[in-house]
Automatic annotation (TrEMBL):
This is C2H2-type domain-containing protein. The keyword Coiled coil applies. The lineage of its organism: unclassified sequences, metagenomes, organismal metagenomes. The keyword Coiled coil applies. Residues 77-118 form a coiled coil. Keywords: Coiled coil. It comes from viral metagenome.
Length: 322
């Protein structure tokens, strides 16, 4: 560094690095080129850099709160008490939890997409065909073993026998046959949605019960003479018979459930957004399909569903004795 002293005539040049003073510019320039000046200058630069590096080393362990320490152990002890560090740790843990939640949501979305893609229209059609085939085979077997052996079951007490026979064969002689009732039953998309919302048993019970309520009492193809024992009488092929094994009622229920199930394709056309796994319609579609099919299998659960529906129907068609 150069410093000037005095007037222009007594101008002096001062090298602070070497503490060298001269009045001549030429001598000052010559001094700056000397080995002594260059060596001293470089030495001071190195010393300055070393001081900076030492400062970095001495404060290399720092906390989020801004404090710095020479040793890692000192930083560790500080972090056990530091409020900022605890808050930072809690924030980090919260971030990790959020990440896990996001991962779970993504997995759920992927699962929904897979389910919806699997339940494509072609798969549903094939499944319906297979279930209908099994249903028809089961019905044929039931008719072979059951209906042929059905006997006239009007063996009740004399008083009830007279009243019931008169009611069925005289007052209800123009009642519909049970399968004609099924054929005329109008199943709406709202019925299909109700099955998805309330479940197979309540949904199908509602369809049948509403259809019966729309008919005059004497036009109904089903009557219950004893609610406690679920004694059911059904008109089939123009004849009133006691449905001992509930074969005719089971057949009717399966046909109604199948009519309801056939509405799925129309529902899909009216609700195209069902194919979007993230939409509410997608969840609704899965419930509709699951519940509509639950009672059409050939297992014990399906039989239990049918029995529950018969119980619900019996409540609606119990004969009220005047």
């Amino acid at each position: 560094m150069t410093k000037n002293f005095g007037s222009k005539s007594s101008k002096k040049f001062h090298c602070e690095i070497c503490d060298y003073i001269t009045a001549r510019k030429s001598q000052f320039d010559r001094h700056n080129l000397t080995l002594k000046h260059i060596s001293t200058k470089n030495t001071k630069k190195i010393a300055s850099k070393n001081e900076y590096d030492l400062e970095k080393v001495l404060h290399c362990f720092s906390c989020h709160c801004g404090k710095k320490y020479k040793h890692q152990s000192s930083l560790w002890n500080h972090r056990q008490k530091c409020v900022c560090e605890k808050e930072e740790k809690e924030k980090q843990e919260e971030k990790e939890k959020e990440k896990e939640k996001e991962k779970e949501k993504e997995k759920e979305k992927e699962t929904k997409k897979e389910v919806v893609n699997t339940l494509s229209c072609e798969v549903l059609v094939d499944l319906f065909k297979e279930m209908l085939k099994n249903q028809n085979e089961q019905m044929l077997e039931l008719f072979k073993n059951g209906i042929g052996n059905t006997t006239n079951s009007h063996n009740v007490t004399n008083k009830n026998k007279f009243n019931l026979n008169f009611f069925l064969n005289e007052q209800c002689k123009d009642a519909m046959n049970i399968m004609d009732f099924v054929s005329t039953l109008q199943v709406q998309l709202s019925d299909l949605e109700r099955v998805g919302e309330l479940g197979y048993v309540k949904g199908i019970s509602h369809i049948v019960a509403n259809g019966l309520k729309d008919l005059d009492v004497c036009k109904r193809p089903i009557h219950c003479s004893d609610l406690k024992r679920e004694t059911m009488y059904v008109k089939d092929e123009n004849v009133w018979e006691k449905d001992e094994s509930k074969v005719k009622l089971s057949k009717m229920i399966k046909h109604v459930a199948h009519k309801n199930q056939k509405q799925i394709n129309a529902w899909q056309q009216e609700n195209p957004e069902y194919n979007d796994s993230e939409s509410i319609k997608s969840e609704k579609f899965l419930k509709i399909v699951g519940e509509s099919m639950s009672g059409l299998t050939n297992d014990d659960d399906a039989e239990q569903c049918t029995n529950k529906i018969i119980k619900n129907i019996a409540k609606e068609v119990t004969i009220k004795e005047d």
